[in-house]
Design goal:
One of its GO terms (cellular component) is endomembrane system. The protein is an alpha/beta fold. The chain has helices at 2-29, 58-68, 79-88, 110-115, 160-169, 203-231, 253-281, 325-358, 364-369, and strands spanning 32-37, 99-106, 123-127, 134-138, 144-148, 173-175, 185-189, 195-199, 237-245, 287-293, 304-308. The strands form three sheets. Strands 3-1-10-2-9-5 form a six-stranded mixed β-sheet, with helices on both faces. A three-stranded antiparallel β-sheet has the order 6-7-8. The chain has a two-stranded parallel sheet with strand order 4-11.
Length: 375
């Protein structure tokens, strides 16, 4: 009997240990880090030394982006959340970039690579448990615009020439295959003196290269739309949102550790050049927000849902057909009648005012009104 109780106790403790380990594994797989990259020429964020909290939730990040865009958060935030936003955002309500570059990155230790790059002084917060998606609500089209950076790359832009141009842009090289197109090798020099080789004949390398080119192309297209809106005199708030997976195409676990480190170094270099393009196009009026997930998930679902609230026009629309001559005559008659009535009323009011002003009795109040100095 005692032996049976001992076995039951051991089994129970073993079950608790397995349950605890599984909870730790789930929490680790859902842990994330958010990094806020400020503009070098504008102070939209607090100094990294000004910090009181190291943790944020996904709704807190969504609220911070809404404030950076110049709008109130879509949901009522609590006092602790407001304190976390105060630790990040500039206290001046007029210091808002009205443009945010949001990128969700799936990569194990990309935060370490960013800490050794030009973004080492950026604000970063831990998200201990990734909750359900948060809502970012934007106003109408005239006040805010949402640009997705996840549109797939067309076959027209996936050529040896585009790959070679991209390799040259990031400081690498591309050796094309003279026999078969899109079968070359992209080479990128790493900081440790080694060289990352991406073979377009391999599925993993090709998918990773396509993801990089897609991100760069969509950012360039977003910049073009921004410049067109600026030239037309429009200045809506802009949210550029996309995702990137450094593990894309890697199926075997033993290959993700070493290869992904090299991929992350290439991604950080590419991202640095992308952010320089955005800073130049937006004249420094932009902030980068990067959510770094440590492990890839089975479902590539974004943590942010962007919605737009439609606003009804305050102008009265004429429902009549403008091509109908009878309707046009009616509209002109009503407008002319209103204009004549308004003009007659103004004329009568002016004549009455002049008459009473000329025949105003001289009293103490009227003399004071006429700026006459009395003893």
């Amino acid at each position: 009997m005692a032996a049976m109780e001992s076995n039951v106790s051991k089994s129970f403790h073993l079950f608790l240990a397995l349950l605890f380990c599984s909870i730790l594994f789930v929490d680790a797989s859902k842990s994330a880090t958010v990094i806020f990259v400020d503009s070098p020429s504008h102070g939209f964020l607090r100094s990294p030394s000004y910090t009181q909290s190291d943790y944020m939730s996904v709704p807190d990040v969504a609220a911070a982006m809404s404030v950076l865009l110049g709008f109130a958060p879509s949901q009522t935030i609590s006092a602790p959340s407001a304190s976390k936003l105060n630790d990040i955002l500039s206290p001046s309500p007029f210091s808002r970039p009205r443009a945010v570059f949001l990128l969700e990155v799936t990569a194990g230790a990309v935060a370490e690579h960013l800490s050794h790059s030009r973004f080492s002084d950026s604000l970063n917060r831990k998200i201990s448990f990734v909750e359900n998606s948060a809502i970012i609500q934007l106003p109408g089209r005239n006040e805010a615009s949402f640009i997705s950076l996840d549109e797939p790359l067309s076959n027209v832009l996936w050529t040896d020439k585009h790959i070679a141009d991209f390799a040259l842009w990031i400081g690498g090289s591309y050796v094309s295959d003279t026999v078969e197109p899109l079968n070359g090798e992209l080479n990128y020099p790493l900081d440790n003196g080694a060289e990352l080789k991406l073979h377009m004949s391999q599925v993993a390398d090709r998918e990773f290269s396509i993801s990089l080119l897609t991100l760069v192309h969509n950012v360039q297209k977003a910049i073009k739309l921004h410049l067109e809106a600026t030239n037309n005199g429009q200045s809506p708030a802009e949210l550029l949102m996309g995702s990137f997976d450094c593990f894309k195409g890697l199926k075997e676990k033993h290959s993700t550790e070493g290869v992904s480190q090299q991929r992350m170094e290439l991604f950080v270099s590419t991202f640095s050049k992308i952010f320089d393009l955005l800073l130049d196009a937006y004249r420094g009026q932009i902030v980068g927000v990067f959510l770094l997930k440590e492990k890839p998930s089975a479902e590539s679902v974004s943590l942010f849902d962007v919605t737009s609230s439609s606003q009804y026009s305050r102008w009265l629309a004429e429902k009549e057909d403008a091509s109908d001559p009878i309707s046009i005559a009616r509209v002109l008659l009503v407008r002319r009648t209103l204009a004549w009535i308004t003009g007659i009323i103004l004329l009568i009011a002016t004549l009455l005012g002049v008459y009473f002003l000329m025949n105003m009795p001289l009293t103490r109040d009227t003399l004071l009104y006429s700026n006459v100095k009395l003893d």
